[in-house]
Fold:
Amino acid sequence: MPKSRFFSVLQTLASHRVDFIVVGGVAAVLRGAPVSTFDLDLVHSTAPDNIGRLLAALEELDACYRAQPARRLRPNTTHLSSPGHQLLMTRLGPVDLLGTIGKGRSYQDLLPHAAETELGKGLRVRVLDLETLIAVKEEVGGEKDIAMLPVLRRTLEESR
Amino acid sequence: MFPYDSAGVDATLIRWMLSMTPAERLEILQDFVDFVWEARGKDAEEQVLFGLADAG
Structure:
């Protein structure tokens, strides 16, 4: 079972010039919130040329759907072009590719709220800001999302 | 001094995280994940990874 290697997954995607935004728990950590997570949540651009680059990166990462690991089902262009969530296992750990988050927020919608962030070794990735992370979690309203809100709100306050 | 606010959030942890660069924060998270894998053992990995819910 592969362990999470957040930096290496991001580096692989960047090397294939994939357009994506880091969201979810890893984005919260990168923005300074003391939370934990085991998977990497990304919202990707569904533009056709980006899907092509994403598929090449996923091949390098040996990505398969993690719901039925024995079948080793791989995501295709149709899956990745949809607004749905593709929950994958890669050789560098779990990665969730999200067509949209919250109430239908796409890569294009999130782009103005995702500044590039330096992660070392020349790697720069777009990370969703705390304000939008909070708004998305409020929209989703799941127990896990609601539970994280006090920490995110306080982190936003402290970072101002 | 009690470090938690009314929502139970420890602001000292937040200030500690905010004192770091994003790269250092990612390293902290990576160290945490590595520690959990080592502490819980191989059997737990499948439970954790395949029990992951949707996020975003």
Observations:
- Chain A has a mean pLDDT of 96.
